[in-house]
Specification:
about 120 residues, mainly beta, single chain, globular, six-stranded antiparallel sheet, four-stranded antiparallel sheet
């Protein structure tokens, strides 16, 4: 089981504890592909991703296959107690809640496994 709870913080809205039944162990995530925030049917873009703490620090984002009552099996992407932080792939801006090209979300449920990219071996 994976427990996700996002505490009140400036990065994103809080989320009461949610329980997900996973079918594999969580693994690190480097990027995700999704439609830009606030757009319904826009083409998906790649975003660098990190977990976020309520203290405003990055930490590893993780992904695992989980059961979803509405969609069957999906990929849960989750981070720290402050949710996730995303920026356009290749952005040179440092991880910061003040960066204009970044945004925060509590967690993600992605239907396509190909929308999640793990870190390359030897990368930071």
């Amino acid at each position: 089981m994976i427990l996700v709870e996002v505490l009140p913080n400036p990065n994103c809205e809080s989320v009461d504890q949610r329980v997900f039944v996973n079918s594999c162990e969580p693994s690190p995530v480097k990027r995700v592909r999704l439609s830009p925030p606030g757009t319904a049917n826009a083409p998906a873009n790649w975003y660098d991703i990190t977990g976020w703490t309520v203290d405003g620090k990055p930490e590893a984002a993780q992904a695992a296959k989980v059961e979803d009552s509405g969609s069957g099996t999906v990929t849960l992407v989750f981070g720290g107690d402050g949710g996730l932080r995303l920026r356009p792939a290749g952005s040179k801006s440092a991880w910061s809640s003040q960066a204009k090209d970044q945004f925060g979300i509590p967690f993600l449920l992605l239907e396509e496994e190909s929308d999640v990219e793990p870190p390359q071996p030897g990368s930071a």
